[in-house]
Amino acid sequence: MKAARYYGPGDIRVEQIPEPEPKNGQVKIKIAWNGICGTDLHAYLAPFVKFPTATVPNEITGETLPITLGHEFSGTIVGLGEGVDATVYTIGQAVCVETIFGCGKTDICSACRAGTRNLCRDINAIGIGGFGGGLAEYISVNKEHIHPLPGNISLEVGACLEPLAVAWYAVKKSKFKSGDRVLICGAGPIGIFLLKALRSFDPNTLIIICEPTELRREVSVQHGATLALDPTATDITATVLAATHGAGVDIAFDAAGVQQSMDTCLYSVKTRGLIVSVATWEQVPKVDMNLMLLREITVTATNSYTGIHPELVQAVASGRLSGIEDLVTARVPLEEVVERGIKALLNDKDKHVKILVHP
């Protein structure tokens, strides 16, 4: 089968590899769509945490480079391994995949024992640490990672549920309540999914987006942002304070992962406000601890997601979360994943929000 294989920064090759067959407890999926993630972009540019190397294998999968990329995908079931209940997992069923995995050593790992594999010290994901990936024609995955899609959720939307789960989880962990005023720094897919998740809980509260790219600001307004501001042209904190009568926002989400965005969050949040980091940081930020102390600001972070896919699937199926397909700005074949997928997102941010790949 065809698969996009990651050999290292700047080196992704679409090549033929053996088609996987489902092992005991696994389900084989014919992949329909795979979304390109910021993690894929980071890895294309430079060595990135959680990817194995050519000489050092992943501690869970035992795989070294190359690995098949892709951790945001959907597809249809085409095969069942031994030990899989055919009345629960049926051939032809549309599914999405919860790709996060931990070490699974429940005797020694408290996170895996508690069912919070996103907090396992060895956390990784299908398509990053190994176990196949969504940028291929087929994959076989353990049944507990599979979530059936109701008939009114398309496979394109199904491929967006993995990053949407990141945003949904962050909103839930923030304990956002109706009326809370919010700042979101960064309007890439995660930032816009944060916006959509927040709007599903409160359609009217103040939500301000901070984003330098014009297209993404426009999309943010279309999907419910009260204000969408360019940080290169606007004093974000001054605007936030004016919009909140000098108080600041209740919650600030950092979905950009750069020093400027963290600073903006710190100076824009109210006394005893909350900052939630949802981004992966290439460089560790500096945080003004004295400012946190004087204003009793809480800074926390969320790591991927855990245990929320059934609730999220229901929210999308019920229409509470809608318009997700409108965020897809390009659909490309697997053979063009680098030129029209990864490079397009790196070089043409003013043209794209979400790109899906069809193997």
From TrEMBL:
Occurrences of domain Enoyl reductase (ER) (ranges): 8-357
Matches recorded under Gene3D superfamilies: Medium-chain alcohol dehydrogenases, catalytic domain, NAD(P)-binding Rossmann-like Domain
InterPro entries: ADH-like_C (IPR013149), ADH-like_N (IPR013154), ADH_Zn_CS (IPR002328), ER (IPR020843), GroES-like_sf (IPR011032), NAD(P)-bd_dom_sf (IPR036291), Zn_alcohol_dh (IPR050129)
Pfam short name (any one): ADH_N
Keywords attached to this entry: Metal-binding, Oxidoreductase, Zinc
Family that this chain belongs to: Belongs to the zinc-containing alcohol dehydrogenase family.
Name of the protein in question: Alcohol dehydrogenase GroES domain protein
Gene source species: Collybia nuda
Taxonomic lineage: Eukaryota, Fungi, Dikarya, Basidiomycota, Agaricomycotina
